[in-house]
Specification:
CATH topology of the largest domain: Spore Coat Polysaccharide Biosynthesis Protein SpsA, Chain A
Strand content: 15-25%
CATH superfamily of the largest domain: Spore Coat Polysaccharide Biosynthesis Protein SpsA, Chain A
Helix content: 25-40%
Radius of gyration: 19 Å
Low-confidence stretches: none
Shape: globular
Number of helices: 9
Distance between the termini: 24 Å
Number of strands: 10
CATH architecture of the largest domain: Alpha-Beta Complex
Strand order of the largest sheet: 3-2-1-4-8-6-9
């Protein structure tokens, strides 16, 4: 809990492989830091292949040479100095007052704070199905538990006593591509953390438009399914419940739906994506069967 009038130490951390407009990102970080009711440290985690990313004044670059977003997040947490740690993706736009809205949620007693995230205006105009919007990191307030999305969120340093960044999850060379923040939040929740969403205007995710294509999203569906299976096996302790024949039927249906779909990401394509995700989930859950459950002693 932040006491009235207190200026907590906050680290704003962005992990990057160097492909984004890093000058613009750092300028956004500097403006938000200058406005915040906190002592803000700005950290850019260089997870590029060769290193050497340049920093603007007031931004500290730290090197995470091993590839993978989870490894980069681990390095950021280890080397940041703040008592509050806030992550933002390198392709997310945010206004100067965002950090203060995150601070308001921490001051109200939250241990983990999710930022509301919208999609860029031209993507919004595409009227994409909900599943595609969610995979593009849209995260707006709604009924049910707060969803933590890696594109914009924060937590108290104390959460690092209970949660970790699993290198088998998240963007990187291992092929899952998702889920590192989901597992982190599950670990925090199991430790009794209060998870809240910040109020006010949303951040804006402005991804590479090349991601918004059916063939790309079909590959994302497989990664999403594999990531969820990993969490289901290692954290939730779930085992495959569907017969092999049903798994194969779902996979065939997924491929047929994909062939019948146009290149548009419409409702028919969304059904194909979800079926492909389900098939990948079951495939991976069967592959993991019999492996030791890494976190069986930690879940509530």
């Amino acid at each position: 809990m932040i006491a009235p009038g207190e200026r907590p130490r906050l680290s704003l951390i962005a992990c990057t492989d160097g492909r984004a407009d890093l000058d613009a990102l750092q300028e956004r970080m500097i403006r938000a830091a200058s406005r915040a009711r906190a002592v803000v440290e700005l950290v850019l985690v260089d997870n590029s292949r060769t290193g050497g990313i340049a920093a603007l004044p007031d931004v500290r670059v730290v090197r995470a040479s091993l590839p993978g977003l989870s490894r980069a997040r681990t390095v950021g947490c280890a080397l940041a100095r703040g008592e509050l740690l806030v992550f933002v993706d390198d392709d997310v736009l945010f206004d100067d007052g965002w950090l203060d809205r995150m601070l308001d949620a921490f001051a109200a007693g939250a241990d983990v704070v999710a930022a509301p995230i919208a999609l860029a205006a031209d993507i919004e105009a595409m009227s994409l199905p909900p599943v595609v919007r969610a995979w593009l990191a849209e995260n707006l307030a709604g009924p049910g538990p707060v969803r933590v999305v890696g594109a914009g969120f924060g937590f108290t340093r104390a959460m690092l006593q209970h949660a970790l960044w699993d290198p088998a999850l998240g963007a990187g060379p291992h092929g899952t591509g998702y889920g590192e923040e989901q597992l982190f939040a599950l670990m925090c929740g199991a430790a009794g953390a209060r998870i809240a969403m910040a109020e006010g205007p949303a951040l804006v995710h402005d991804p590479d438009r090349g991601r918004i294509a059916l063939d790309v999203m079909m590959r994302e569906a497989v990664r999403k399914g594999r990531s969820e299976a990993y969490i289901s096996h290692h954290w939730r302790g779930e085992s495959p419940a569907w017969p092999r024949l049903r798994r194969l039927v779902r996979g065939v249906r997924a491929r047929r739906r994909a062939r019948r779909s146009s290149s548009a990401l419409d409702d028919r394509a969304a059904a194909a994506l979800e079926a492909a995700q389900d098939a990948a989930f079951i495939d991976e859950l069967i592959a993991l069967r019999g492996q030791p459950r890494l976190f069986a002693d930690r879940r509530s």
